[in-house]
């Protein structure tokens, strides 16, 4: 069974009151899968939830800054941003830019200047490019480590955060990461709290006009709704119920690959390097 | 008689202190939010409202109505004459006899109150209320003896000093209960607050046989949305709480209380009084919220009620069935208060329990509670060839499909109704994908912002087309459209008639537009949906329809305005507060005692709740489905 990650923090009573921790959660405008309407994105909502829990553990909600880089002028987008604020944020900081612009530069400039300790994002956006590249590009720009798909932050001690990374089918990997870092928050993280209309409508939309370049590459693209691909039927030959369950839940095992646990770090690095060369990632 | 000065002094002191108490009490109510009330008209109408509206409800219990008429009437008459005779010293023999008569009347009433209190039912509050009959007897008895000389029965100055002292003790006891208790928070408070509550009621439309059941809209730009502290209630709501007589009629009919969920409407109103006046609920001497001890709750006019005074679970247990409001002899509005506090929990705290948040998110993002694609609303009618209003623009009847469109069980009801409409050659059309959720669930869950958004968009859609009537199979949508949309519709509904399908079908059957065979099955009972019956007063049309099939309805003990809720209203299945029993199971027990094999229902929510009861149990069918089975279909013309 999947560990109940939603209560993990409460149970241990995460106490960060000694820390002067600055957290930033990045949010985007989500898109509802069946109606296509703008909404609070599921993963970004989790990033805000995790940020709020951390900030509450430090004893000062102000330690969390929630930032959106984009255009907040349209009513639907404004409402979506406010639905994040309805979780109990006093304000949402908006780096105002044209919809067609690239968010990376203004974001990395802002983050470099304000130097937070933890940056939380979703894994990928629900609309637009949805490439999932934002945390990596920010990591590159700031020179910080990137932790993909985290489920929770368990503790922060001596400048090192103990993080649970989400793996398929409820597995978790414990990581120790030195601050500052960027983490993308997986769907396995605790679900975001309910957004309330009152605080949402009263929250401050703190707009900052920012310099941004037009994303020329993207503007040359045309967007189409995704076409559904036919799914390959899985023929299950299992005889027993247990075998059928296994077949239904098991992840297809990759043919290649090997597990290197015993070898030295140099050997492990060499193996990764060789693979990257072989795959043509490095040239 | 000795100490002649004593009794007038006692009366004057009691009256004076009562006035001081009244001013203090009025100030407690004035802490509430402003609400405009026609004071003069209310005060003029008050005696009539007492004698008709209030008394009609008390009259359901003949014993109590006679007792109250004797005691209350006797007291009011006696008090007026006591002031004349014993305070102002008017020594008139006729007046003396009249006073004796009214005191005797009051005494007889008090004897019956006393008898009632010998072995009181559990719904009645004990504590100070057990003292009341004794005080009534003391008051009427002592003044009776004191008045005897005035009437000339006894010589002036009869009895010694001892009798005078004993009499004076009883008089002091009676006066303090009847006059001080009235304004300083004793059981007699109900007379003072109740009279003013009748005069300044927030829903004056309810008097004279009217009905006012739609929730009041929230102004969305307020400082705090919903009710956080007692002072966030309207002042006349606070006044209403003070009118409670703790008779427990509400408790006796509350489905959540019976199911062992932590709600007792009587305790809730008393907690509101505790919040308004400040203090703890330790003085409360009635049934507790099931599963919760009395004495733990503390409140004050400036304290958040859901932190310490009332457990949010209490508020979320309510099915908004209005049984308590219907039974309340003081015409207190429990459901308004509960939804007001839910509004705070949802719109300010974001703490709607269980599936609440998910349902509200879905309503915002997809206009239906389960997150179905808004473009799939008409999938149920793919084979029905229904005219769309966006095509025809004009029609007689708009068929409001409601969210039953997404539910396979409800679709059977919708199909049955469409078949009936077609058989009767009705000119009708549907809104198709343009229709949105009515907002019922959002509003009952306290999210008035989402309700208002849905309502306004639905109204804008309706405004585009020409039609005379809206007919729906869903009593919840019916209630919203009929009673709650008018606040946002700017007169649109003045010219439109909103009907429930049973009302409309009954019209068609009575006009001979539907030919029906008689019903062949076994015994049938009818379950009144709360939102059709108590909310809209429609008890007769569904029954007339069943009778027109030749069905003799085996009525349940709790039917008509006393119908027990199925448990499906007010978002209760979504918030799902645990109890000891399920409300639907209890309703099914009601059905079983009639021996019925079929339950006729007029609501898809009731259908779902009652069909959720484990078999074996009677079949559950909507009236439209029952009619379709007996429908004589017009024959296709034979070719020659």
From TrEMBL, chain A:
Gene3D superfamilies: HUPs
InterPro entries named among the record's database cross-references: ETF_b, Rossmann-like_a/b/a_fold
Keywords: Electron transport, Transport
GO molecular function annotation: electron transfer activity
Translocase among keywords: no
Record's protein name: Electron transfer flavoprotein beta subunit
From TrEMBL, chain B:
Keyword tags: 4Fe-4S, Iron, Iron-sulfur, Membrane, Metal-binding, Oxidoreductase, Transmembrane, Transmembrane helix
Transmembrane segments: 6-23, 69-88, 94-114, 135-154, 160-180
GO molecular function terms listed in the Swiss-Prot or TrEMBL record: 4 iron, 4 sulfur cluster binding; metal ion binding; oxidoreductase activity
Gene3D superfamilies: Alpha-helical ferredoxin
SUPFAM superfamilies noted in UniProt: alpha-helical ferredoxin
PROSITE patterns: 4FE4S_FER_1, 4FE4S_FER_2
Metal-binding in keyword set: yes
GO terms under cellular component: plasma membrane
Every 4Fe-4S ferredoxin-type domain range: 235-265, 306-337
Domain of life: Bacteria
PANTHER family (UniProt xref): IRON-SULFUR-BINDING OXIDOREDUCTASE FADF-RELATED (PTHR43255:SF1), IRON-SULFUR-BINDING OXIDOREDUCTASE FADF-RELATED-RELATED (PTHR43255)
Protein name: Fe-S oxidoreductase
The species this protein was found in: Neptunomonas qingdaonensis
Lineage: Bacteria, Pseudomonadati, Pseudomonadota, Gammaproteobacteria, Oceanospirillales
